[in-house]
Amino acid sequence: MKLPNYVKNKTGISRGLKKFGRKKELISQINKRIRGKKEKIKLLEIGCGKGILLLDLLKKYLDNIALYGINLNKEHGVKSRKDFLKNAKENKIELNKQRKNLPFIKFGNATKLSFKDNTFDIIVSNVSFVHIKNKAKVLEEINRVLKLNGIAIIEFDAYQIDPKIKEENIFYNNLSSKEYMPRFLIKKDNFLNIKEFLKHAKDRGFNISIKSRQHKPSNTLAGYTLILKKENTRKLNLNLKYSSKQSKILTKQARGRNPAPYGAVDFYELK
Question: What's this model's pTM, rounded to 2 decimal places?
Fold first, then answer.
Protein backbone atom coordinates (compact mmCIF):
# COMPACT_ATOMS: atom_id res chain seq x y z
CA MET A 1 0.00 0.00 0.00
CA LYS A 2 1.34 3.41 -0.95
CA LEU A 3 1.54 5.61 2.15
CA PRO A 4 0.13 9.15 2.17
CA ASN A 5 2.76 11.90 2.25
CA TYR A 6 1.68 13.02 5.71
CA VAL A 7 2.57 9.59 7.13
CA LYS A 8 6.10 9.93 5.75
CA ASN A 9 6.45 13.42 7.22
CA LYS A 10 7.82 12.88 10.72
CA THR A 11 7.31 16.54 11.71
CA GLY A 12 3.66 16.52 10.71
CA ILE A 13 2.80 13.53 12.90
CA SER A 14 4.93 14.53 15.89
CA ARG A 15 3.33 17.80 16.97
CA GLY A 16 2.80 18.26 20.67
CA LEU A 17 1.05 20.72 22.94
CA LYS A 18 3.34 23.62 22.03
CA LYS A 19 2.19 23.44 18.40
CA PHE A 20 -1.49 22.94 19.09
CA GLY A 21 -3.22 25.87 17.41
CA ARG A 22 -5.62 26.56 20.28
CA LYS A 23 -3.33 25.57 23.16
CA LYS A 24 -4.64 28.18 25.61
CA GLU A 25 -8.24 27.25 24.92
CA LEU A 26 -7.51 23.54 25.30
CA ILE A 27 -5.69 24.05 28.63
CA SER A 28 -8.51 26.27 29.86
CA GLN A 29 -11.13 23.64 28.98
CA ILE A 30 -9.17 20.86 30.71
CA ASN A 31 -8.56 22.92 33.87
CA LYS A 32 -12.22 23.90 34.06
CA ARG A 33 -13.40 20.31 33.74
CA ILE A 34 -10.99 18.65 36.19
CA ARG A 35 -11.61 21.23 38.91
CA GLY A 36 -13.33 19.53 41.85
CA LYS A 37 -13.77 16.21 40.04
CA LYS A 38 -12.68 12.94 41.62
CA GLU A 39 -12.99 10.84 38.47
CA LYS A 40 -10.78 11.41 35.45
CA ILE A 41 -12.10 13.33 32.47
CA LYS A 42 -11.77 11.63 29.09
CA LEU A 43 -10.07 13.19 26.06
CA LEU A 44 -9.85 11.80 22.53
CA GLU A 45 -7.43 12.94 19.81
CA ILE A 46 -8.48 12.15 16.25
CA GLY A 47 -5.40 11.53 14.14
CA CYS A 48 -2.98 11.30 17.06
CA GLY A 49 0.05 10.46 14.90
CA LYS A 50 2.95 9.50 17.15
CA GLY A 51 0.95 10.50 20.21
CA ILE A 52 3.11 13.46 21.23
CA LEU A 53 0.18 15.73 22.15
CA LEU A 54 -1.31 12.94 24.26
CA LEU A 55 2.03 12.36 26.00
CA ASP A 56 2.38 16.08 26.74
CA LEU A 57 -1.10 16.08 28.30
CA LEU A 58 -0.32 12.90 30.24
CA LYS A 59 2.78 14.53 31.69
CA LYS A 60 0.81 17.62 32.69
CA TYR A 61 -2.37 15.97 34.00
CA LEU A 62 -1.35 12.52 35.28
CA ASP A 63 -4.07 11.99 37.88
CA ASN A 64 -6.89 13.89 36.21
CA ILE A 65 -7.21 12.70 32.65
CA ALA A 66 -7.73 9.49 30.67
CA LEU A 67 -6.35 9.81 27.15
CA TYR A 68 -7.41 8.10 23.94
CA GLY A 69 -6.23 8.39 20.35
CA ILE A 70 -7.33 7.12 16.97
CA ASN A 71 -5.21 6.73 13.82
CA LEU A 72 -6.18 5.53 10.38
CA ASN A 73 -2.74 4.07 9.62
CA LYS A 74 -0.61 1.87 11.89
CA GLU A 75 2.45 3.22 10.07
CA HIS A 76 2.30 6.38 12.21
CA GLY A 77 4.40 4.62 14.83
CA VAL A 78 2.10 4.01 17.81
CA LYS A 79 1.10 0.37 17.90
CA SER A 80 2.17 -0.62 21.38
CA ARG A 81 3.26 0.56 24.82
CA LYS A 82 6.88 0.35 23.66
CA ASP A 83 6.17 2.77 20.83
CA PHE A 84 4.80 5.36 23.26
CA LEU A 85 7.84 5.07 25.49
CA LYS A 86 10.16 5.34 22.47
CA ASN A 87 8.35 8.40 21.12
CA ALA A 88 8.40 10.04 24.54
CA LYS A 89 12.17 9.55 24.77
CA GLU A 90 12.75 10.88 21.23
CA ASN A 91 10.72 14.00 22.03
CA LYS A 92 12.34 14.50 25.45
CA ILE A 93 9.13 13.87 27.40
CA GLU A 94 10.17 12.40 30.73
CA LEU A 95 7.69 9.86 32.05
CA ASN A 96 7.85 8.47 35.58
CA LYS A 97 4.52 7.60 37.22
CA GLN A 98 2.87 8.27 33.87
CA ARG A 99 4.19 4.95 32.49
CA LYS A 100 1.27 3.21 34.19
CA ASN A 101 -1.34 5.41 32.49
CA LEU A 102 -0.30 5.52 28.85
CA PRO A 103 -2.98 6.57 26.32
CA PHE A 104 -5.26 4.00 24.70
CA ILE A 105 -4.89 3.82 20.90
CA LYS A 106 -7.36 2.49 18.35
CA PHE A 107 -7.09 2.21 14.58
CA GLY A 108 -9.88 2.87 12.13
CA ASN A 109 -11.76 5.43 10.10
CA ALA A 110 -13.04 8.41 12.10
CA THR A 111 -16.28 8.34 10.10
CA LYS A 112 -17.27 5.44 12.36
CA LEU A 113 -15.76 5.92 15.82
CA SER A 114 -15.66 2.71 17.86
CA PHE A 115 -16.77 4.38 21.10
CA LYS A 116 -20.11 4.46 22.88
CA ASP A 117 -22.34 7.52 22.89
CA ASN A 118 -21.51 10.22 25.45
CA THR A 119 -17.98 8.99 26.20
CA PHE A 120 -15.68 12.03 26.03
CA ASP A 121 -15.48 15.39 27.76
CA ILE A 122 -13.09 16.81 25.15
CA ILE A 123 -12.19 15.84 21.58
CA VAL A 124 -9.31 17.42 19.68
CA SER A 125 -7.65 17.08 16.30
CA ASN A 126 -4.42 18.87 15.60
CA VAL A 127 -3.17 18.38 12.02
CA SER A 128 -5.00 15.40 10.55
CA PHE A 129 -8.47 16.73 9.76
CA VAL A 130 -7.50 18.23 6.39
CA HIS A 131 -6.68 14.71 5.21
CA ILE A 132 -9.96 13.12 6.31
CA LYS A 133 -12.52 12.21 3.67
CA ASN A 134 -16.14 13.07 4.52
CA LYS A 135 -15.42 15.51 7.34
CA ALA A 136 -19.14 16.15 7.85
CA LYS A 137 -19.70 12.51 8.83
CA VAL A 138 -16.82 12.75 11.32
CA LEU A 139 -18.37 15.85 12.88
CA GLU A 140 -21.60 13.92 13.36
CA GLU A 141 -19.64 11.09 15.00
CA ILE A 142 -17.79 13.56 17.23
CA ASN A 143 -21.08 14.96 18.45
CA ARG A 144 -22.32 11.43 19.16
CA VAL A 145 -19.38 10.39 21.37
CA LEU A 146 -19.14 13.73 23.19
CA LYS A 147 -20.79 13.98 26.59
CA LEU A 148 -23.48 16.59 27.11
CA ASN A 149 -21.69 19.95 27.56
CA GLY A 150 -18.56 18.42 26.04
CA ILE A 151 -16.44 20.34 23.55
CA ALA A 152 -14.50 19.53 20.38
CA ILE A 153 -11.57 21.67 19.26
CA ILE A 154 -10.72 20.72 15.69
CA GLU A 155 -7.99 22.22 13.49
CA PHE A 156 -10.45 21.90 10.65
CA ASP A 157 -8.81 23.36 7.59
CA ALA A 158 -5.80 25.28 6.36
CA TYR A 159 -6.05 28.06 3.83
CA GLN A 160 -3.14 28.91 1.55
CA ILE A 161 -3.14 31.44 -1.25
CA ASP A 162 -0.11 32.40 -3.30
CA PRO A 163 -1.06 35.79 -4.77
CA LYS A 164 1.43 35.29 -7.60
CA ILE A 165 -0.52 32.35 -8.97
CA LYS A 166 -3.64 33.21 -10.95
CA GLU A 167 -5.16 29.92 -11.98
CA GLU A 168 -8.44 29.53 -13.73
CA ASN A 169 -9.99 26.72 -11.74
CA ILE A 170 -12.86 26.07 -9.38
CA PHE A 171 -10.75 26.74 -6.29
CA TYR A 172 -9.21 30.03 -7.23
CA ASN A 173 -12.29 31.47 -8.90
CA ASN A 174 -14.76 30.54 -6.18
CA LEU A 175 -12.77 30.16 -2.99
CA SER A 176 -9.91 32.66 -3.13
CA SER A 177 -11.02 34.51 -0.02
CA LYS A 178 -10.98 33.72 3.68
CA GLU A 179 -14.78 33.43 3.67
CA TYR A 180 -14.53 29.86 2.40
CA MET A 181 -13.05 26.57 3.57
CA PRO A 182 -11.34 25.05 0.52
CA ARG A 183 -11.57 21.44 1.71
CA PHE A 184 -15.21 21.60 2.76
CA LEU A 185 -17.33 22.56 -0.21
CA ILE A 186 -21.10 22.69 0.18
CA LYS A 187 -23.08 23.25 -3.00
CA LYS A 188 -26.60 24.53 -3.05
CA ASP A 189 -27.03 26.98 -5.90
CA ASN A 190 -23.52 28.31 -5.30
CA PHE A 191 -20.95 27.32 -2.68
CA LEU A 192 -21.87 28.13 0.92
CA ASN A 193 -19.39 30.40 2.66
CA ILE A 194 -18.44 30.04 6.32
CA LYS A 195 -21.25 32.26 7.67
CA GLU A 196 -23.85 30.35 5.66
CA PHE A 197 -22.47 27.02 6.88
CA LEU A 198 -22.61 28.15 10.52
CA LYS A 199 -26.18 29.40 10.07
CA HIS A 200 -27.06 26.05 8.53
CA ALA A 201 -25.70 24.26 11.64
CA LYS A 202 -27.40 26.70 14.01
CA ASP A 203 -30.73 26.29 12.25
CA ARG A 204 -30.42 22.57 12.97
CA GLY A 205 -29.93 23.31 16.68
CA PHE A 206 -26.16 22.95 17.07
CA ASN A 207 -23.47 25.26 18.41
CA ILE A 208 -20.61 25.27 15.91
CA SER A 209 -18.20 28.18 15.49
CA ILE A 210 -15.20 28.77 13.26
CA LYS A 211 -12.11 30.69 14.38
CA SER A 212 -9.31 31.71 12.04
CA ARG A 213 -5.64 31.84 12.90
CA GLN A 214 -2.80 33.31 10.84
CA HIS A 215 0.30 31.16 10.51
CA LYS A 216 3.32 33.35 11.12
CA PRO A 217 5.52 34.50 9.48
CA SER A 218 3.54 33.72 6.32
CA ASN A 219 0.70 36.04 5.36
CA THR A 220 -0.63 33.60 2.76
CA LEU A 221 -1.43 30.72 5.11
CA ALA A 222 -4.19 30.66 7.70
CA GLY A 223 -5.84 27.96 9.75
CA TYR A 224 -9.47 27.41 10.61
CA THR A 225 -10.39 25.89 13.97
CA LEU A 226 -13.87 24.47 14.40
CA ILE A 227 -15.36 24.55 17.90
CA LEU A 228 -18.32 22.24 18.52
CA LYS A 229 -20.14 22.48 21.85
CA LYS A 230 -22.64 19.75 22.63
CA GLU A 231 -25.57 21.54 24.23
CA ASN A 232 -28.30 18.97 23.65
CA THR A 233 -28.66 15.21 23.32
CA ARG A 234 -30.00 15.27 19.79
CA LYS A 235 -28.21 13.42 17.02
CA LEU A 236 -26.24 15.83 14.85
CA ASN A 237 -27.35 15.63 11.23
CA LEU A 238 -25.80 18.28 9.00
CA ASN A 239 -28.09 17.20 6.16
CA LEU A 240 -25.20 17.03 3.70
CA LYS A 241 -24.84 14.46 0.92
CA TYR A 242 -21.18 13.53 0.40
CA SER A 243 -20.08 12.80 -3.16
CA SER A 244 -17.11 10.40 -3.10
CA LYS A 245 -16.67 10.60 -6.86
CA GLN A 246 -16.73 14.40 -7.09
CA SER A 247 -14.54 14.73 -4.00
CA LYS A 248 -11.91 12.46 -5.55
CA ILE A 249 -11.91 14.49 -8.76
CA LEU A 250 -11.58 17.80 -6.92
CA THR A 251 -8.87 16.49 -4.58
CA LYS A 252 -6.82 15.42 -7.61
CA GLN A 253 -7.46 18.77 -9.30
CA ALA A 254 -6.33 20.68 -6.20
CA ARG A 255 -2.92 19.00 -5.92
CA GLY A 256 -0.28 21.72 -6.09
CA ARG A 257 -2.79 24.47 -6.78
CA ASN A 258 -4.39 27.29 -4.81
CA PRO A 259 -5.87 27.24 -2.27
CA ALA A 260 -5.82 23.52 -1.32
CA PRO A 261 -2.49 22.04 -2.46
CA TYR A 262 -2.71 19.10 -0.04
CA GLY A 263 -5.27 17.14 1.96
CA ALA A 264 -8.68 15.86 0.89
CA VAL A 265 -11.27 18.13 -0.70
CA ASP A 266 -14.82 17.16 0.31
CA PHE A 267 -17.75 17.98 -1.96
CA TYR A 268 -21.29 17.95 -0.53
CA GLU A 269 -24.73 18.81 -1.75
CA LEU A 270 -27.15 20.39 0.69
CA LYS A 271 -30.14 18.07 0.97
Answer: 0.89
